[in-house]
Amino acid sequence: MDKIVTAVIKKYGGDETRLMDILIDIQDELGCLSHETTAHIAKALGIPQVDVEQTISFYHFFAREPRGKFTVYLNDSVVAEFCGRAAVQAAFEAAAGCQFGAVSRDGVIGLFHTACIGMSDQEPAALINGQVFTKLTPARAQELVAGMRAGQTLEELKGKKYGDGENANPRVRALVENHIRRRGVMVFDAYQPGAALRKVVTMSSGEIIAMVKAASVRGRGGAGFPTGMKWEFARKAPGDVKYIFCNADEGEPGTFKDRVILTEHPQLVFEGMAIAGYAVGARHGILYVRNEYRYLRAYLEHVLAEMREKTLLGAIIAGKAGFHFDIKLQFGAGAYVCGEESALIESAEGKRGEPRDRPPFPVEKGYLQKPTVVNNVETLCSVVKVLLHGAEWYNRLGTEESKGTKVLSVSGDCERPGIYEVAWGFSVNDILKMAGAHATQAVQVGGPSGSCIGPAEFGRVLAYEDLATGGSLIIIGQQRDLLKDVVLNFTKFFRDESCGSCVPCRALTGMAQIVVERIIAGHGSAQDVANLQAWAAIRKRNRCGLGQTALNPIVTTIRNFRPLYDARLYKGDERFEPGFDLAAAVKDYEAAVASA
Amino acid sequence: MAKKIIATTSLAGCFGCHMSILDIDERILDLIELVEFNKSPIDDIKTFTKECDIGIIEGGCCNDENVHTLLEFRKHCKTLVVIGECAMMGGLPSMRNTIPLKECLDEAYLNGPTVADCNPQKIIPNDPDIPKILNRVYPCHEIVKIDVFLPGCPPRADLIWDALVALVTGAELKLPYTTFKFD
Questions:
Q1: Are the beta carbons of A582 and B64 separated by less than 8 Å?
Q2: Hey, which of A225, A379, A386, B130 would disulfide with A215, CB 3.0 to 4.6 Å?
Q3: What's the domain count of chain B?
Q4: What's the domain range around B150?
């Protein structure tokens, strides 16, 4: 253990801000991060052990105890449940001989739940030792367990039938499918790597920012902040050292666009980062990728190396003296809140991914307290195309306040789940038609933090001025129990993912779950529904977007599907709590007395 | 105006909240001008003899007798008021909620250092006349609907007094921050 810890820490120059990388690498070698290992890491880095402990405890892919020679993380998102996850879970448990949350007695197989792994178009899906297994069935689960017990390698378990496009690249070899159903001009059409960079170096940074502003490019992560303005703030911020982050931590359940973009067009993203670096005056880029996509690591590293060879990264980019920019990958370790930009920065510094207080904003004091731009994957792709084709070209697409295209991740009850790149301004109905959705009860727009709308609103359009979205649409068919299958799942998700820093988020997510469970059990009252609505007002006091939107699944379904709640309310004498069962409550006592 | 009728009880509590009721001092003389007590340890009336306007509950429910008493209060009282941490949240008794009941009973009656030698027959008290212990301690609102919650451990006498006056007279309850600021 000592040798491994020492070697890994040496690899990262003993830099405590690289703690995430250090922990990930050490866990890869040792299988888990025990207290003994942690003590050793702390000592070698010269930091208090509690600093290492708190980072480890924050991320759910970090293990304190061994999680099996093969660790299965089965996604428990809404869409996975739609696709028959429960039966797959049962098959895994029966075959492995242990429950989820535990390791089989022979130590070979560990079974664990995990939140959405970005495979909503091919569920049920699981990560096994970092590799993705999609479209699981009970039979396949049995086969996998048998294979693991028989000592097969991961490659043998996967088989040879890789997914389409670059998923079959020898450096990826993933079973994942892209499912690109509709290609748009911003992200998914043909493009010449390096063309934009070669054009950019003939311009000044002010000209670039002016062009991005003229095109009114807005952030694609969901909030829609004007990109040009963000770059300008960072450029004007005092200091020589600045950073460009690309946020590929897409953890919003139902979102998987960044996975497909990074699989098919990583050069486009990296080029966008380099352009941002040129415009802002930054030399360092960091692509923060969620741990679930670590199967892309070798491939992405290779693309970066190729770009360096072609002088599209590194020193003197595209022949321009003084233009230095390079990119490194930073992986997360399983925490939804790290998609929030300041939490992402904290995480990249090796800390717990807790959002920061703002101001100061990252453009003033971000990564390592230096001016930092954090852009979404898709935003950076758009910027490359804007610089190639001009602001006017870009402004011809979309609506008044939402220019360009949007890459949508469509999943759920439809015939053609997958990626659709459309110009802003498409209506929900258009999308449902394209995706082949019939008998749709509801659409979850923008993931759990967005809103759940009913057929009356399917005419609304996707745009910042109407339905703003980070790009996820989960289609919910009429056969689903909206409260139990969707709202409760999302509510639990937020409870699990709350970082716990703000009381209104930490407490309310838990209280909301209890009340929603009561209502589903038929024990709720009209007062419970009123309480949920009243509590929702407090969420605005939370520091970050997670806390502020954590009750959205409840609030938007009460607004749009009130009859579903009313139908489940308790109709008896409300003075007495129907959920309390005295006979059940004294059972333990009776058993204890009988056995004594 | 007819006097309002009040009932009180202490369930899984320590009687500290009742002490706090008595802590209203000489105002209790004003109180009995306004109200009549029915079932309560204060006057030792054991069973309800009248329908009541206000029921005051101290303590949560740790056994089946607590539950029956609470249900009786709900049946006979128009407005149910819980006072104190135990009634509101389970309080100190609920510290056992994270431990399985069997382990608690074993420790208390069979294995604990003070009982190991004096219970040779290894009996966990089981007389039909004693209440059955619940699997965990329940706050009152998980069993019946509660109308008013007065926090504190115990709630201050002034808070109890102000709340009672407001309930009895129908006036608005004023809650200055200092009344429920505890640290």
A1: yes
A2: A386
A3: 1
A4: 4-95+133-180
B151: which 2 tokens?
A: 């926090």
Q: Is the peptide bond before B125 cis (omega within 30 degrees of 0)?
A: no
- The widest CA-to-CA distance across chain B, in whole angstroms, is 62
Q: How confident is the model over A15-38, as pLDDT tens digits? A: 999 999 999 999 999 999 999 999
CA distance B93 to chain A (A): 16
The residues, any chain, with a CB within 8 Å of residue B170's CB and separated by 6 or more, are none
The DSSP secondary-structure symbol of A55 reads H
A228 near A209, Cβ under 8 Å? Answer: yes
How big is chain B by its Cα radius of gyration, in Å?
A: 18
Strands (DSSP E) along B11-109, which ranges?
35-37, 52-58, 61-63, 77-83
- Rounded Cα–Cα distance for residues A47 and B152 (Å): 42
- Only one residue has tokens 């069997």, namely B102
Alpha helices in A396-502 (DSSP H): 428-435, 488-497
**B138 contacts A580? CB cut-off 8 A:** yes
When pLDDT is cut at 50, 70 and 90, the band that residue B177 belongs to is confident
Token digits for A49? 């052990």
Q: Residue B24 forms beta bridges with which residues? A: none
The edge-to-edge listing of strands for the beta sheet with A440-445 is A180-182, A418-423, A405-412, A472-477, A440-445, A451-453
End-to-end CA distance of chain A: 48
CATH for the A405-479 domain, from 1.10.10.10, 3.10.20.600, 3.30.365.10, 3.30.1360.40:
3.10.20.600
pLDDT confidence band for B1 (50 / 70 / 90): low
Which residues are paired to A294 by β-bridges? none
